[in-house]
Design brief:
alpha/beta, Aldehyde Dehydrogenase, Chain A, domain 1, Aldehyde Dehydrogenase, Chain A, domain 2, globular, binds nicotinamide-adenine-dinucleotide
């Protein structure tokens, strides 16, 4: 059985404790590898090596840093097949999805920040004839990057790439549920010539290894993506230590269908935005709000197409919905379906576990589920389920749908379907979401700031925002 290793000071090593945790393939429901059960001692070693590497990495000419990051991107491209398979084996997602989204976007993250840093700039201001001010931006220091299991390598590199590009050294922890791509990534970094200690990847539990990263006094910034509850805990620990914090958290995103939409586009993309990655994308539209005049037509077509989605072996080219990430998560999703029924919801499709014949017989599959008849305030419509479960509700007016859309504690993303440009602008401006897609979903331009409002997060990542996050500003004012 493969034993995944930590990557500390340029070496691949087990945890100090010598203990291991099982890593499951959720499509097969069996252990297929093990990860180091790291604790604060491993984090201490990682911080020591990151501190040692900081002076030379942070002062290395930007073009040289950029070259190394580009070599890492080339390594991702070279290991494309192995990484995609690892992503699917760890997470349960269709291999095809890993090949079209996760791995290409991981490579794009490295390339984007490798080249963005070459164009990063600071500002100068002249105060009348009195003084000239110029602002410097210097790398923050040793930072912690903690990522979730849903888009493992994509979100891991989303944090690491800007940190390294900005000149920080990093202690990173991938999710304990999906560690394999980060392990392969550490080998790619070694081969690309990343100096020892610049990036340290420590595997293990959030409550142990993750918490030790947050608490470490010499880690000065934390970039975290994960659940809102974990985010609250992290903020409670890190804020009194005055650490710089970026939190990318959960969502309960509205998908708004106006009657004047391009109906075909709205239905087909809504299938994708509801059930891609088994609904385990923070940006999935889990509350579909449909204008009453097209409600019946939309519901009928949406149910018909959802029933055609093939749930099955992630390795199969035809599979559209793979396994959920763990047995625990599957049970959580199933419990929300029971809750929806108790709240008066009508399950129109799915609603149960699916047994897939063959090697996946023990896997954690749930059929894409559509629920009608719930009100906005019920728990099913307020809490993040993070699975292949959507609710559909009718609305009558623009004011009403804006109120519905903004009615949760989250504010990550929203989607609007309309051919009326004025309406698209008007509604977009009133939605409390960090990103709003009009007539599309999941299109990302890496230059744009990314992040949630309300309980979906604090701070913005992406583009210059990410490079700014990982640097410290200083203004120098010189009297003329
Ligand atoms: P999670 O919060 O359970 O775990 C995320 C990471 O934090 C893991 O690596 C985990 O080990 C670590 N962790 C857990 N407890 C910790 C602690 N006390 N200290 C430090 N680290 C700790 O989230 P998850 O279940 O892995 O991911 C699903 C969640 O992530 C969903 O809520 C989803 O919406 C959210 N998410 C948000 C975005 C976004 O960009 N806003 C993107 C993807 C996922």
């Amino acid at each position: 059985m493969v034993r995944i290793l930590n990557y500390i000071n340029g070496e691949l090593i087990p945890a100090v404790s010598g203990e291991w945790l099982d890593n499951y393939n959720p499509a097969e429901g069996r252990v297929y590898s093990q990860i180091p059960d790291s604790n604060e001692k491993d984090i201490e070693e990682a911080v020591t090596s990151a501190k040692k590497a900081f002076p030379s990495w942070s002062t290395m000419p930007m073009s040289e840093r950029s070259d190394i990051l580009l070599k890492i991107a080339e390594g991702i491209d070279r290991e494309f097949e192995a990484l995609a398979k690892a992503e699917s084996d760890d997470n349960g997602k269709p291999l095809k999805l890993a090949k079209t989204i996760d791995i290409p976007r991981a490579s794009a993250n490295m390339r984007f920040f490798a080249t963005a840093i070459l164009h990063f700039e600071s500002q100068a201001h002249q105060t009348d004839q009195l003084a000239v001010n110029y602002t410097t931006r210097t790398p923050l220091g040793v930072v912690g990057c903690i990522s979730p299991w849903n888009l493992p390598l994509y979100l891991f590199t989303w944090k690491i790439a800007p940190a390294l590009a900005a000149g920080c050294t990093v202690v990173a922890k991938p999710s304990e549920l999906t560690p394999m791509t980060a392990y392969l990534f550490s080998k790619i970094c070694k081969e690309a010539g990343l100096p020892a200690g610049v990036l340290n990847i420590v595997h293990g539990l959030g409550s142990k290894a993750g918490q030790a990263i947050i608490e470490h006094p010499e880690i000065v910034g934390i970039s975290f993506t994960g659940g809102t509850t974990t985010g609250k805990r992290i903020a409670a620990t890190a804020a009194p230590m005055f650490k710089k914090l970026s939190l990318e958290l959960g969502g309960k995103n509205p998908n708004i269908i106006f009657a004047d939409c391009d109906f075909e586009q709205a239905v087909s993309t809504s299938i994708y935005s509801s059930f891609s990655n088994q609904g385990e994308i923070c940006l999935c539209g889990s509350r579909i709000l449909v204008e009453r005049s097209v409600y019946d037509r939309f519901v009928e077509e949406f149910i018909k197409r959802t029933k055609k989605l093939s749930v099955g072996d992630p390795a199969d080219e035809e599979t559209r919905v793979g396994a959920l990430v763990s047995e625990e998560h599957m049970n959580k999703v199933l419990s929300y379906i029971e809750l929806a029924k108790a709240e008066g919801g009508k399950v129109m499709s799915g609603g149960e576990r699916v047994v897939v014949r063959g090697r996946c017989e023990m896997g954690y599959f749930v059929a894409p589920t559509i629920i009608l008849g719930l009100n906005q305030q019920c728990r099913t419509n307020q809490e993040e389920i993070f699975g292949p479960v959507v609710t559909i509700m009718p609305f009558d007016t623009e004011e009403e749908v804006i109120e519905f859309a903004n009615s949760t504690a989250f504010g990550l993303s929203a989607t609007i379907w309309t051919e009326n440009l004025k309406k698209a602008h008007r509604v977009s401006h009133q939605l409390k979401s960090g990103i709003i897609w009009v007539n599309c979903w999941l299109l990302r331009d890496l230059r744009t700031p990314f992040g949630g409002m309300k309980q979906s997060g604090v701070g913005r990542e992406g583009g210059w925002e990410a490079l700014r996050f990982f640097t410290e500003q200083k203004n120098i004012c010189i009297k003329l």
